[in-house]
Design a protein that fits this description.
Chain A: This is Small ribosomal subunit protein uS11c. Chain A: Part of the 30S ribosomal subunit. Chain A: InterPro entries: Ribosomal_uS11, Ribosomal_uS11_bac-type, Ribosomal_uS11_CS, Ribosomal_uS11_sf. The complex is a heterodimer of chains A (138) and B (222). Chain A is built from 3 helices and 5 strands, in the order αβββαβαβ. With 138 residues, chain A is of the alpha/beta class. A 5-stranded mixed sheet of chain A has the order 3-2-1-4-5, covered by helices on one side. Chain A is globular, with a radius of gyration of 18 Å. Chain B has a domain of 126 residues: K homology (KH) domain (GMP Synthetase, Chain A, domain 3). The relative contact order of chain B is 0.10. In chain B, β3 and β4 form a beta hairpin. Chain B contains 9 helices and 5 strands, in the order αααββααββααβαα. In chain B, strands 3-4-5 form a 3-stranded mixed sheet, sandwiched between helices. The chains are: A alpha/beta (138), B alpha+beta (222).
């Protein structure tokens, strides 16, 4: 007897990202954040709205193996798999941070058939702002 | 006492000297496994009375920690230091606004047992000319890098730095590309569209087994 209430609230909020299959993005941006212990690969559109992401941790690696270049490569492949099916041809890559993931993720992206238009390094660089953490004593 | 703990042979040969000409060398060797994290770098050769210099080998754990720290410092230097960046990528000085033609990464660091020689494996992503320019630039700045490292890290003797080009990542990528191509050819020869989804899963599992062979080429610092 009770009628099911149609859930249209999500569309009314303006969150267009819920309609995943509708978007065709020919050009996007791939952000690679490569720290020493992990690599996070995020695929967004040109304006910066996230389409999909994957990290070495979510790709089935745990602990110290997340920081290895093979894990970075697996994360990159996982992240762009959904986007390649949606038909993304060109991408710009933004790399952040030191770490082995920089090189490995780039090579994986190039191997997958997506055309790399630009490679940028966007590591945050303070103009001498906050005090960095103390030096590690070895 | 110390004879049972010290693996390298020069020390065991020189042990009589150490015990006769002052027990400090022997006692340091005993303390090393327990308090290695507070001891300063014991890589300096200690002068024993007869003039024969005894090289102290730091223990393996400390060597690994120093290697990891050097990797962190060098990577940080590559990102922040202006001199190094201009050496690796000359067009950065023109204000290219971070649009890179080549990307240099420190893929591994190997430190010798006495912490005197450091081999830095550098991997460059880019075309042939960019790679040559980057490696040549780094090699020309080896002395500068050594002095910067000495300023940043507290070591008794700053090690000599050698830059070596690391091709293992490139090789691994080539092998994986060939494997992917073979899988695509095999699957397309079967001529089924539904089966295109399956190779993506199986190629990852096969990739795990194959990467173990390439792991030996890639140096992981754990």
């Amino acid at each position: 007897m009770t009628k099911a209430i149609p859930r249209i609230g999500s569309r009314r909020n303006g969150r267009i990202g819920s309609r995943k299959n509708g978007r065709r993005i020919p050009k996007g941006i791939i952000h690679v954040q490569a720290s020493f212990n992990n690599t996070i690969v995020t695929v967004t559109d040109v304006r910066g709205r996230v389409v999909s992401w994957a990290s070495a941790g979510t790709s089935g690696f745990k602990g110290t193996r997340r920081g290895t270049p093979y894990a970075a490569q697996a994360a990159a492949l996982n992240a762009i798999r959904t986007v390649v099916n949606q038909g993304m041809q060109r991408a710009e890559v933004m790399i952040k941070g030191p770490g082995l993931g920089r090189d490995a993720a780039l090579r994986a992206i190039r191997r997958s058939g997506i055309l790399l238009s630009f490679v940028r390094d966007v590591t945050p660089m303070p103009h001498n702002g906050c005090r960095p953490p103390k030096k590690r004593r070895v | 006492m110390s004879l049972s703990r010290s693996p390298p042979s020069p020390l065991t040969l020189a042990a009589p000297f150490a015990t006769t000409a002052g027990g400090n060398g022997g006692r340091h060797q005993l303390l090393l496994p327990h308090r290695s994290w507070t001891n300063p770098n014991l890589a300096a050769s200690t002068r024993v009375g007869g003039g024969a210099s005894v090289r102290c080998m730091a223990n393996q754990r400390r060597v690994k920690m120093v290697a990891k720290q050097i990797q962190r410092e060098l990577s940080d230097m590559l990102l922040t230091d202006k001199v190094l960046q201009y050496a690796v990528l000359p067009e950065a000085s023109l204000g290219a606004d971070r649009y890179l033609s080549s990307l240099t990464t420190i893929s591994g660091v190997e430190v010798s047992g006495d912490l005197q020689v450091v081999k830095v494996y550098v991997s460059v992503f880019g075309d042939e000319r960019g790679r040559e320019v980057a490696i040549a630039g780094l090699k020309s700045k080896a002395k500068y890098v050594r002095s910067e490292l000495g300023r940043r890290m507290k070591l008794r003797l700053t090690p000599e730095i050698r830059f070596i080009e690391d091709e293992s990542l490139e090789r691994g990528s080539r092998v994986l590309a060939i494997l992917d191509r073979l899988k695509e050819e095999k699957k397309s020869s079967k001529g089924n569209d539904v089966k295109q989804l399956e190779p993506l899963n199986s190629s990852e599992e096969d990739g795990d087994g194959d990467m173990d062979d390439e792991d030996e080429g890639i140096i992981y610092i754990k």
